[in-house]
């Protein structure tokens, strides 16, 4: 029996399997505006897709079923937090696409996770994006990229970016995207914490800090332009100086040891480090690939992180493998 893997033959794999993968993201700029009546915050964010991928394999089956392997799965060494049932975003993605296309939701889904869950890296969004792309091919639903982006936005604010990849400015609740040109490769080291952070909890902490007057109210957002200009062509120091995340302060409040983690990254020579999204992953900028490898080895030796990964971006969004 042929078994499709991330490096495998994709659409031509045995059992009619279709394989897709999607990347993690880092927000190199995350400006959070006021809370909207719908419970979301108005954002101005710059997403960068980085080379840490989850893979979703879908196969013909009767009804929906799901298996999860790797980071956050029940069988993993780390904290188990990824449900293998209808609570998982990939299950909801399958039902949504089936309804949209007027087909029966028949498929077995396998999610191979490398992106840690509840880490601020959009791992769940990557899984949903890869599922939409894979099932569109398996079911022959012929959804356009625009259709998939609209369905993705119903699943989560970051799903449209997981589909698009590259670099993009996100507005609205993060689902409205305009691509941004980046002429060079950016190397990073991701320092992954032992325990995840809940995104709504971090946003709620930001609201509480603002309500208490400990932080400005969010009416005046910092412009994403310096980050966009730096991303286009560098130099590294320009991006290092422009990195900015409004969720970092509340994440540090909820997880004070993150201060030490950020310090460890700059002590190890990173030009800059910030919390990725709602955290608790620390994204440390590196000068180049060699610097990222050196930084990764040094940070792994500090014992501050559960896992340390050298990555680069921009990389492509969700797409079929093979
Ligand atoms: O869209 P997603 O399901 O990823 O959002 C998870 C939670 O994060 C939301 O329920 C909300 O509490 C918070 N959020 C927000 N503003 C955004 C995006 C997310 O407040 N723009």
Topology of this protein?
Blueprint: E1 18-35, E2 41-59, E3 64-70, H1 89-101, E4 107-113, H2 123-139, H3 145-155, H4 159-164, E5 167-171, E6 176-179, E7 186-192, H5 199-211, H6 225-233, H7 236-242, E8 244-245, H8 248-254, H9 258-267, E9 272-275, E10 282-286, H10 289-302, E11 307-313, E12 319-320
Parallel strand pairs: 1-8, 3-4
Antiparallel strand pairs: 1-2, 1-12, 2-4, 2-5, 5-6, 7-10, 7-11, 9-10
Helix pairs in contact: 1-2, 1-3, 5-8, 6-7
The structure holds cytidine-5'-monophosphate.
The site of cytidine-5'-monophosphate has 12 residues, from strand 2 and helix 5.
Structural features, described:
Helix content is 33%, strand content 27%. With 322 residues, the chain is α+β, with helices and mostly antiparallel strands. Strands 1, 2, 3, 4, 5, 6, 8 and 12 form an eight-stranded mixed beta sheet that branches. Strands 9-10-7-11 form a four-stranded antiparallel beta sheet, sandwiched between helices. Residues 39-41, 43, 156-158, 173-174, 199-200, 203 line the site of cytidine-5'-monophosphate.
